[in-house]
Automatic annotation (TrEMBL), chain A:
Species assigned in the record: Methylobacterium aerolatum
Name of the protein in question: Two-component system chemotaxis response regulator CheY
Residue numbers of 4-aspartylphosphate PTMs: 56
Origin superkingdom: Bacteria
Keywords in alphabetical order: Phosphoprotein
Record InterPro entries: CheY-like_superfamily (IPR011006), Sig_transdc_resp-reg_receiver (IPR001789), ST_Response_Regulator (IPR052048)
TrEMBL record, chain B:
This protein's UniProt keywords: Methyltransferase, S-adenosyl-L-methionine, Transferase
Single GO MF descriptor: protein-glutamate O-methyltransferase activity
Annotated SMART domains: MeTrc
InterPro entries reported in the protein's UniProt record: Bact_Chemotaxis_MeTrfase, Chemotaxis_MeTrfase_CheR, CheR_C, CheR_MeTrfase, CheR_N, CheR_N_sf, SAM-dependent_MTases_sf
This protein's name: Chemotaxis protein methyltransferase
Record-linked SUPFAM superfamilies: Chemotaxis receptor methyltransferase CheR, N-terminal domain, S-adenosyl-L-methionine-dependent methyltransferases
Protein task: Methylation of the membrane-bound methyl-accepting chemotaxis proteins (MCP) to form gamma-glutamyl methyl ester residues in MCP.
Organism: Methylobacterium aerolatum
Annotated EC: 2.1.1.80
Record's keyword annotation contains Endoplasmic reticulum: no
Residues covered by the CheR-type methyltransferase domain: 1-273
Signal peptide: none
Keyword Transferase part of the UniProt annotation: yes
Catalytic activity, as annotated: L-glutamyl-[protein] + S-adenosyl-L-methionine = [protein]-L-glutamate 5-O-methyl ester + S-adenosyl-L-homocysteine
Amino acid sequence: MSQRDTTCLVVDDSAVIRKVARRIIEEIGFLVSEAEDGANALEVCAEAMPDVILLDWNMPNKDGYAFLQELRRTEAGLKPKVIFCTTENDVGAIARALRAGADEYIMKPFDRDILTAKLEQVGVSARLDA
Amino acid sequence: MTDLDFEYLRGYIKQRSGLALTAEKRYLVESRLSPLCRRFGAASLHDLIGKLKTPHDKVLERTVVEAMTTNETFFFRDRLPFDLFRDTILPEALARNAGRRKLRIWCAAASTGQEPYSIAMLLQEAGARLSGWQVDILATDISLDVLEKARLGIYSQFEVQRGLPVQWLLKHFTQTGDQWQISPSLRAMVEYRPFNLLHGFEALGQFDVIFCRNVLIYFDAPTKSDILTRFGTSLAPGGALLLGAAETVIGLTDKLIPDAKHRGVYGHAPARPPALRAAVG
Ligand SMILES: C[S@@+](CC[C@H](N)C(=O)[O-])C[C@H]1O[C@@H](n2cnc3c(N)ncnc32)[C@H](O)[C@@H]1O
């Protein structure tokens, strides 16, 4: 079976966080794209659905929650694994995100080890069967 | 710290915990022991090491030995051993012990509890298959400090983030401030006890499964051999020993062999018939 690179969309309103995340995720071997808010992310997904989405929770112009709800409403939007990230360490927020369709949760600031572990946990590796 | 001090300390630690300090670990000794000087009223490391020689101060001895241990751990570390435990080792042990309905598991280097609690979570998830069974998880470590933390079962955001699926975080932990405490039912499943792997295992009894992960790497070959050979005796017939990813029994004991199918799992070596043994020598 042929293989292709796994694609990851990083959604965050902070350019710094996007840059850090991009560097780590590219090192792990994924193809990375970026979006700066939920609305922007929906456009990217409509063009090409990524395999995994690293999703910031608090963003202006459609936050993570609103984005996720909308994404999961479409059939294609059920496919990506979604890891949501926040600085909030709160059961309520985590539970709400899981109900909206997130697969994992990561606390900011994250490092390479944690991000690698979370990607493994949701079952995506750098190469997927095409 | 003089060369002689380092030599003394090396012997001292090796004898008490098995930890083999190579010459390049000198910086580690300095960074970990220097903070203890003030607490024990020592003017310098040289002075502190002097105090170790005489008179006997049990608290100082314990503190120095514990300060040199590495306690790094996380939930479901390396994942594979826990998948194997859930999918193969546990079902086989349940089949083997179906008559007595008793299962004993030993976490021999438990550190702050993430490993024994990972096992406890898997057992709790196994649910009905274990009803009516007596399941013991004995979790031991040389360090009293880590055991104290393990008993409380309170972890930081950083710690619960490593290896623990978020659904299980919500299911098995409650939030206290910015920390997370594991559920009372899981805490009750694990018995924590101080224990030094250099000491005899006889009093602990036999175990169906032994996790001894990421501690033998710190020991020299004779110490590893000794511990592994004694695990051979502590392991119940058909039982499984799980080692860390960088650890093995090969070349260290003839009592245990790698499981042909599962990486990181070890079992009893088949007993050789006496005649063959004589012939092989
Ligand atoms: C790196 S941790 C491993 C924790 C866990 N098993 C894992 O794999 O994540 C090693 C632990 O071994 C303990 N240890 C070191 N020497 C020991 C000894 N002689 N007897 C018992 N425990 C020891 C240390 O205190 C430390 O908590």
